[in-house]
């Protein structure tokens, strides 16, 4: 222990020195200065961004800096930690857990040692070595001194038995072999990580994000990684993992947060969600846009202050069809084609105006001039630009543009579809009358009234229509200013490239990597006028931001339309898809991975399966297995790594005593737990009544609507809200009502009973079903409730 403490202290001294250097350099870079050239701005932006990220990574490594040591057959022992550290001579002091050299720490087993003799887990409390755990893979090879210094009970079991804090923690010190294989899998293509409750799917996916950002930093640091979770509570639950691993180029969001300016947690009724999530909606939305590209039957008449013009139906069709053909040929959205419609209409109006002028001129008798001279002289009197501008500024002409090819906004178009039954009948003939009626909204569809199922539809429309002209003009202005700045710096370009190379070399040395950063990457990254903003902020602000990799958690819940949206956000289709089909609860969720992904990637995806439950004990998983079997699912519940644990219990209570018994039961469970977290999981109709009853006994009760629900001593959630979370103890209320509440009620109950790490209780008013009698659920009553309850 003393020897390890000495080495650990030296590592922290090196960390302090590197952090002081990064923070000092950053302080110099952000000082007010006269930056007169593009070159100077480039250098300053590069330095600020680089040293900010460097300081953040070093600070994040403070907690649990080193957690492992590997003794092998063929080399000196080396230490593994959150980041890589090198001394001033560039000799390694600490190996980053993501480096190839660290792979053996996670994958070596007694059956396949990979040359490893001993794997030591180092547990820190602050900067002090608190405990050592040794995994000896070659006991016969250890000498007497090494045998005397073996220590520990096993890092994994110690971690599993610790109390939960309400936030997900990283597992860099205890990654298991099957998890490590997933984490280090190639980034190309779509990887499906399938596994039952508690197998570590989420935390493995987050560590995979950290691994990919480390391994492919040059490619991913500019585009980032998007992590999509099932709801806002889940996103808060995981939001500390990646920053704790020193990674900030990550966007965490739920589906309801993936449309700029919108954040919604509202859900549609099941029948509406199914229709909105169907791929048929893509055709419906395409038809809706097409109906706004008009060629009025009989044409149209335009009356300006000066004259009257006629666009016959043939001309209207020609203008419309020309714009459509151009859009299809160039793959351009609706709004970008409006300029061509405007041009073609103005050309036609100009032709008619000049034709009328010619007719007037033909009636003018000018005997002193021959005909050619008259045409030439009078034509020169017409200011074509002024006439065109006069037509363009006419309100009647503008109205004609809007009739033929209006600018479209996704929110307004979707609102029309959801509130106008006649429009739906026109654009959605492939939907049944009942399906079209399911889409009807009577409470408005703006602001807080948008639902999570609306977000993929809004994004789909946005991809079809593109930005408005005003947005295009703003973007064009920004581009022009950037081009002007680049033009002013033309004479300095050679020096800029040279300086960028120096910056790149400094970055490489400071990062202590083996290969220098390409100077062109530095130039490309810092030419962005918005580059100083955090990546997450920039990405969420731009709907068409293309991410380098996307991780989808609880992916079985996504609708086909949501998958289309995510495919647009990651054109390379580099994705990690994490989930469990047996837990699908949403009405528009997946029944198989092939069906979920087929329309997005076809058959081009691969699958890895996690098989071991690290969350719940075997007694809890036996109860969960009964639920899974009753659901008719083909899957089996994953095997628990912890065989022993408190037996699950149940209390049957008459309806009028439910609230009192629940309050007492939760109080008892909180007392038994001491430290730790507890959740009450129940059907939505019982939420308000149970919360009110619990708050009479437990003032710290919170629901998913509360921002601090994850930090509360008692969280009251529905199965949908609890998805992906874990607690030390869980009380499930009215399991029969959970099953009956939806067409996938068994999946919701499966989610509910697999949330706890150690204690599971069931409170029910109806008898437990016969299929649950096989599980070891002990019926019991509290002393206070025994007299009130009419049954055991």
Automatic annotation (TrEMBL):
A molecular function annotated in GO for this UniProt entry is: DNA binding
Q: Which positions in this protein are listed as binding ATP?
A: 195-202
- Gene3D superfamilies (UniProt xref): P-loop containing nucleotide triphosphate hydrolases (3.40.50.300)
Q: Which UniProt keywords apply?
A: ATP-binding, Helicase, Hydrolase, Nucleotide-binding
Residue ranges constituting the UvrD-like helicase ATP-binding domain according to the UniProt record:
174-617
CC terms in the record's Gene Ontology section: cytosol
Q: PANTHER family, alphabetically? A: DNA 3'-5' HELICASE, UVRD / RECB / PCRA DNA HELICASE FAMILY MEMBER
What is the official name of this protein in its record? Helicase
The source organism is Phytoactinopolyspora alkaliphila
List the top taxonomic levels of the source. Bacteria, Bacillati, Actinomycetota, Actinomycetes, Jiangellales
């Amino acid at each position: 222990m003393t020897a390890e403490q000495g080495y650990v202290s030296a590592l922290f001294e090196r960390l302090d020195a590197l952090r002081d250097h990064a923070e000092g350099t950053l302080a110099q870079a952000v000082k007010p200065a006269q930056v007169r050239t593009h070159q100077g701005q480039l250098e300053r932006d590069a330095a600020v961004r680089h040293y900010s990220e460097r300081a953040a990574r070093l600070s994040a490594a403070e907690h649990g800096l080193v957690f492992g040591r590997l003794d092998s057959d063929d080399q000196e022992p080396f230490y593994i930690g959150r980041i890589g550290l090198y001394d001033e001579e560039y000799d390694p002091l600490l190996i980053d857990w993501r480096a190839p050299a660290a792979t053996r720490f996670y994958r070596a087993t007694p059956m396949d040692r990979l040359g490893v003799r001993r794997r030591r887990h180092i547990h820190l409390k602050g900067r002090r070595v608190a405990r050592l755990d040794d995994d000896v893979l070659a006991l016969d090879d250890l000498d007497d001194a090494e045998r005397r210094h073996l220590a520990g009970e096993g890092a994994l079991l110690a971690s599993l038995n610790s109390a939960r804090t309400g936030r997900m923690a990283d597992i860099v010190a205890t990654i298991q072999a099957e998890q490590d294989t997933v984490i280090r899998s190639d980034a190309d293509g779509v990887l499906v990580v399938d596994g039952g409750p508690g197998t570590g799917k989420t935390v493995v996916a987050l560590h995979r994000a950290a691994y990919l950002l480390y391994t492919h930093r040059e490619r991913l640091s500019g585009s980032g990684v998007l992590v999509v979770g099932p709801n806002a509570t889940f996103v808060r639950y995981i939001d500390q993992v990646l920053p704790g691993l020193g990674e900030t180029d990550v966007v965490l969001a739920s589906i309801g947060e993936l449309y700029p300016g919108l954040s919604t947690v509202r859900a549609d009724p099941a029948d509406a969600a199914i229709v909105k999530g169907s791929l048929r909606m893509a055709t419906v939305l395409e038809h809706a846009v097409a109906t706004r590209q008009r060629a009025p039957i009989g044409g149209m008449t335009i009356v300006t202050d000066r004259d009257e013009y006629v666009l016959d139906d043939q001309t209207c069709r020609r203008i419309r069809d020309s714009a459509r053909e151009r859009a299809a040929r160039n793959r351009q959205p609706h709004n970008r084609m409006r300029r061509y419609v405007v041009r073609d209409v103005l050309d036609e109006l100009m032709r008619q105006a000049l034709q009328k002028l010619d007719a007037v001129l033909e009636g003018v008798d000018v005997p002193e001039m021959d005909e050619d001279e008259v045409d030439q002289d009078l034509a020169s009197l017409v200011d074509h630009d002024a006439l065109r501008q006069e037509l363009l500024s006419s309100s009647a002409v503008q109205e004609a543009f809007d009739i033929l090819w209006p600018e479209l906004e996704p929110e307004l178009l979707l609102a029309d579809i959801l509130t106008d039954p006649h429009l739906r009948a026109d654009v959605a003939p492939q939907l049944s009358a009942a399906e079209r009626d399911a889409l009807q909204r009577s409470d408005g569809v703006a602001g807080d009234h948008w639902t999570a199922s609306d977000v993929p539809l809004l994004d789909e429309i946005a991809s079809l229509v593109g930005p408005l002209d005003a947005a295009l003009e703003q973007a064009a202005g920004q581009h022009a200013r950037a081009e002007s700045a680049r033009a002013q710096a033309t004479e300095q370009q050679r020096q800029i490239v040279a300086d960028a190379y120096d910056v790149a070399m400094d970055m490489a040395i400071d990062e202590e990597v083996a290969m220098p950063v390409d100077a062109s990457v530095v130039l490309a990254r810092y030419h962005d006028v918005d580059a100083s903003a955090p990546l997450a902020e920039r990405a969420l602000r731009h709907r068409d931001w293309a991410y380098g990799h996307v991780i989808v958690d609880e992916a079985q819940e996504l609708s086909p339309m949501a998958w289309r949206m995510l495919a647009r956000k990651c054109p390379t289709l580099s994705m990690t898809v994490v989930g469990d089909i047996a837990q699908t609860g949403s009405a528009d969720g997946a029944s198989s991975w092939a069906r979920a992904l087929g329309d997005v990637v076809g058959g081009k995806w691969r699958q890895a399966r996690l098989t071991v439950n690290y969350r719940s004990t075997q007694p809890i998983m036996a109860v969960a297995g009964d639920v899974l079997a009753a659901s008719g699912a083909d899957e089996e519940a994953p095997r628990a790594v912890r065989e022993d644990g408190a037996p699950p219990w149940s209390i049957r209570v008459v309806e009028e005593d439910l609230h009192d018994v629940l309050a007492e039961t939760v109080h008892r469970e909180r007392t038994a737990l001491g430290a730790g977290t507890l959740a009450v999981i129940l059907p939505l109709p019982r939420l308000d009544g149970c919360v009110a009853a619990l708050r009479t006994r437990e003032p710290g009760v919170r629901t998913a609507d509360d921002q601090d629900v994850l930090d509360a001593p008692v969280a009251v959630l529905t199965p949908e809200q609890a998805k992906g979370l874990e607690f030390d103890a869980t009380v499930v209320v009215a399991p029969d009502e959970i099953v009956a509440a939806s067409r996938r009620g068994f999946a919701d109950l499966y989610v509910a009973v697999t949330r706890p790490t150690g204690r599971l209780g069931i409170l029910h008013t109806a008898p437990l079903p016969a299929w649950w009698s096989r599980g070891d659920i002990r019926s019991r009553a509290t002393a206070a409730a025994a007299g009130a309850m009419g049954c055991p």
